[in-house]
Write a structure and sequence with these properties.
Blueprint lengths: L11 E5 L2 E9 L13 H18 L4 H6 L7 E12 L8 E11 L3 E10 L2 E14 L9 H7 L3
Antiparallel strand pairs: 1-2, 2-4, 3-6, 4-5, 5-6
């Protein structure tokens, strides 16, 4: 089965007065919860990782292409430099959550994103995440014009 067969599984890109953003629906499963059926704190980090990865994918920057060197001059990857997490309300098993990812700031080698997890339009979690593009040797790399352009409003 081709990678495009389930293209919608990567969520969708949208744009409003604040710019381009990505939305990814996530169902909460038993494995995402603690013994009380409430979403375990680390699950939010995994949900946000999926949101960031699929945001990049829909912008045309796939992680495996970065790692192989196809997307730039040398093999590279985005790594998390900093995360600030805010747990606002509980989410529970079987809830349908939407992870929204927006670019807050572009640096030379970094991107700061705001990721909001919502249930029925109500914010339950928010993260501010700074990722840095680094070579496989760990050296920060400037964002290419193609990567930078993907983050700019369309």
């Amino acid at each position: 089965m081709s990678a495009n067969a389930w293209r919608d599984i990567a969520g969708r890109l949208d744009e409003d007065k604040n710019g381009r953003f990505h939305q990814l629906p996530v169902r909460v499963y038993f494995e995402d919860t603690d013994a009380g059926g409430v979403v375990y704190h680390a699950s939010y980090v995994r949900f946000c990782e999926r949101g960031r990865t699929d945001f990049l994918r829909l912008l045309g920057v796939e992680a495996r292409q970065l790692i192989s060197g196809e997307a730039s001059n040398e093999p590279a990857a985005f790594v998390v430099r900093r995360m600030s997490l805010d747990f606002l309300r509980p989410a529970r098993m079987d809830d349908l959550l939407v992870i929204e990812t927006r670019v807050k700031e572009l640096g030379g080698a970094s991107v700061t994103l705001v990721q909001t997890v919502m249930k029925d339009g109500v914010k339950v979690f928010e993260a501010e995440v700074t990722v840095v593009l680094v070579s496989v040797a760990g050296k920060p790399l400037r964002l290419s014009e193609a990567v930078r352009g993907g983050f700019e409003p369309g």
